[in-house]
Amino acid sequence: MPADSGSGSRRRPSDAGFVLDTRSLGRKPGSMKTLQRSMTVPDQIGLDLIGVPAGAEVNLDLTLQSVSEGVLVTGSVTAPIAGECSRCLESFTDEIVLQVTELFAYPDSVTEQTTEEDEIYRLVDDMIDLEPVVTDMVGLELPLQPLCEPDCPGLCAECGVRMAIAGSDHRHEILDPRWAGLAKFTAESPGTGGTAADLN
Ligand SMILES: [Zn+2]
Ligand SMILES: [Zn+2]
After folding, report:
1. Taking the domains of the chain in order of start, what are their residue ranges?
2. How many whole angstroms separate alpha carbon 80 and alpha carbon 14?
3. Tens digits of per-residue pLDDT, 85-137?
């Protein structure tokens, strides 16, 4: 994309939220800068059933390193998540930690010129926008079938009560008369064998 060189007064995006300013890093390969930041996400990231809710506080703990082709961003992004259990339908909260390793290519780098637009992230006006990276990673990290607990016992198939509340001995009598009759028969039928003494 050609640079818009005619508008010197164009405002740069500010170094805030998911937007990281790399100007103080410089382009000397090997130069590094660490960045810790807490920010509030304006919009929900993820799915309706589970995701990082709007207004959640996300923590960035990152290292920006200048390399020959761009800026390598490594570190972690920690975000609270809120979801609904796919077994018992209770809402729950948790936390995800995303391990980031992503290259943002310089606009004039070989990498930038030899890759497609959607193959690699790019620096725009010396700025890194981490939002698409986090959005993609959250999407991959979130479970398709979220659970409030790994061993959530779910709901009773008969009455729909939450098994975690009802207890493991929650059960229903079998009311089907055919089965009731069979149960009676089984109870009344004599044993199959006599005593060990009879066999001798
Ligand atoms: Zn559950
Ligand atoms: Zn039940």
Report:
1. 19-141, 153-189
2. 25
3. 999 999 999 999 999 999 999 988 888 888 887 788 999 999 999 999 999 99
